[in-house]
Amino acid sequence: MDYSIRVHTALRAAALFAQLPILSGFSVQDRATLSSDRDMAPLDGDLCVADVSVDPWTGFQATPVRCAEIARAMRELVEEHQETCEPLRGHTFARTFHRCARTVRGCDGSVT
Fold first, then answer.
1. Long-range contacts of 17-22 (CB under 8 A, 24+ apart)
2. What does the pLDDT look like over 35-74, one tens digit per residue?
3. Residue 77's CB: how many other CB atoms inside 10 A?
4. Pick from 90, 5, 99: which is nearest to 51 by CA?
5. pLDDT in the model for residue 17
6. Which burial class, exposed, middle or buried, applies to 101 when counting CB atoms under 10 A from its CB (0-12, 13-18, 19+)?
7. Is 71:50 a contact under the CB 8 Å cutoff?
8. Between the chain's N and C termini, which has fewer beta carbons within 10 Å?
9. What percentage of the chain carries pLDDT values higher than 70?
């Protein structure tokens, strides 16, 4: 995927997270690989939005309406840039990326 498409994809995802503050994340998956409870909203061809999660403290759930909003935004991206369809397959979008903390000791003995 070329750089401009990556930028458009990132901007579209950022706009979704801004528009839906309760949204924690979602993925774009091949429908054939999903069980029926994970197939949330059709996207393009055999792709669908799946694994939609929202912040549990809000009391909201990942409703079909929310999933449709996400699918609509991703469909607009695919319509604007048809070549994004394949790279989106299997991609997970998350509001926050958590990484494992680890201690790294430098040559001088410093710890980061």
1. 17/95, 19/69, 20/54, 20/66, 20/69, 20/70, 22/54, 22/55, 22/58, 22/60
2. 877 757 888 788 888 888 888 776 777 778 888 889 999 9
3. 21
4. 90
5. 92
6. exposed
7. no
8. C
9. 83
Amino acid code (one letter) for 6 = R
* Sequence-distant contacts of 51-60: CB under 8 A, at least 24 apart: 51/25, 51/26, 51/27, 51/92, 52/23, 52/25, 52/26, 53/23, 53/24, 53/25, 53/26, 54/20, 54/22, 54/23, 54/24, 55/22, 55/24, 58/22, 60/22
Q: Locate tokens 């759930």: which residue?
A: 61
d(CA 16, CA 11): 9
Q: Give yes or no for residue 27 having a pLDDT over 80.
A: yes
How confident is residue 2, by pLDDT bands cut at 50, 70 and 90? Answer: confident
